[in-house]
Amino acid sequence: MFAAATLALLLTIVLALVRAALGPTVFDRLLATNTIGTCAVLLLAVMGFLNGRPEFLDLALVYGLLNVIGTIAVLKYFHRAGLGAGASEEGRL
């Protein structure tokens, strides 16, 4: 059963890579990248369970947090055209 889950996750990663390569907009590519990150987190958790190594779950949690922070940073960059915009510059668009 876990082998089938691993194969399904790998297939999802391949399909998301195709979507990232063909996506017409930056947001399609970002969504595909976020999907790849989420599948990588799930793959780490499944592989850790299969190998009997529970510390893989800690790695998966850290990678998931980095995935969320990276997605927010990229969205902020494309929304404001820079990462250094402070609170005083929010009113000026």
Report what the structure shows:
- By secondary structure, the protein is an all-alpha fold.
- It has one domain (2-83): Helix Hairpins (Orthogonal Bundle), CATH 1.10.287.
- Helix content is 78%, strand content 0%.
- Helix 1 (2-22) runs antiparallel to helix 2 (26-51) and helix 2 packs antiparallel against helix 3 (55-80).
- The mean pLDDT is 85.
CATH topology: Helix Hairpins
- CA(first)-CA(last) distance: 52 Å
Strand residues, percent: under 5%
Q: What count of structural domains?
A: 1
* Mean pLDDT across every amino acid position: 85
The CATH class name reads Mainly Alpha
Topology (SSEs and partners):
Elements: H1 2-22, H2 26-51, H3 55-80
Helix pairs in contact: 1-2, 2-3
Output the keywords.
3 helices; Helix Hairpins; 0% strand; mainly alpha; 93 residues; 78% helix
Brief synopsis:
By secondary structure, this protein is an all-alpha fold. It has helices at 2-22, 26-51, 55-80.
